[in-house]
Design goal:
Length: 186
């Protein structure tokens, strides 16, 4: 029962991140579908470190992995691999486990040689889960986009959202991807 609840909670959080990511990019899609390419036609590079977590079963590193995975699925960015990020951080003595502030993310992004950094948090507050994501432009140091969305943390809603999980980005995920997600949660 405990594993089932943890699986449903994780599935809910992944679904919430999918929906938050869609909110983060919705304005961009409406205004200019090609806005997310650079002058040379290449996708901008982005790095995701840990996502701050409070009062949920998943830790910051796991949530960072989930966000990185969902961000890769959008196809909008060249997402830096977590192992490459860890290697560069070690080389420059950067503690990426506690790098959540804008100044730390900008400085780290410069070492990583990426165009953008993504950060955020996932918190359980009473009967709600709040997912907050932001994209920071490394060159300017400004927050380019941000989104915060509240979701009810009720088991029935988690089950309904879980059933919608394969449709996060308007396309059906391959069963192998879905099963991989299910297997890795136990």
């Amino acid at each position: 029962m405990k594993n089932t609840f943890k699986f449903l909670a994780t599935s809910f959080l992944v679904s919430a991140l999918c929906l938050s990511g869609n909110n983060l990019f919705a304005q961009e899609q409406a205004s200019a579908p090609t806005q997310n390419t650079q002058a040379d036609g290449k996708k901008p590079s982005i790095a995701v470190l840990n996502i701050d977590t409070k009062n949920i079963a998943q830790d910051a590193q796991t949530m960072g992995y989930i966000v990185r995975l969902e961000l890769e699925k959008t196809g909008r960015f060249n997402v830096m691999d977590k192992y490459e990020a860890a290697e560069i951080a070690k080389k420059h003595n950067i503690d990426i486990s506690n790098c959540f502030s804008k100044s730390c993310l900008v400085e780290t992004g410069r070492y990583f040689n990426v165009d953008k950094m993504m950060s955020g948090s996932v918190e359980k507050i009473e009967d709600k889960i709040v997912v907050s994501l932001r994209i920071i432009d490394v060159k300017s140091g400004n927050i380019e986009k941000s989104d915060a969305t509240e979701y009810l943390n009720l088991p029935e809603i988690q089950k309904m959202v879980f059933r919608q999980f394969p449709f996060c980005y308007g396309t059906i995920l391959h069963r192998v991807d879905f099963l991989f997600c299910a297997i890795t949660q136990f």
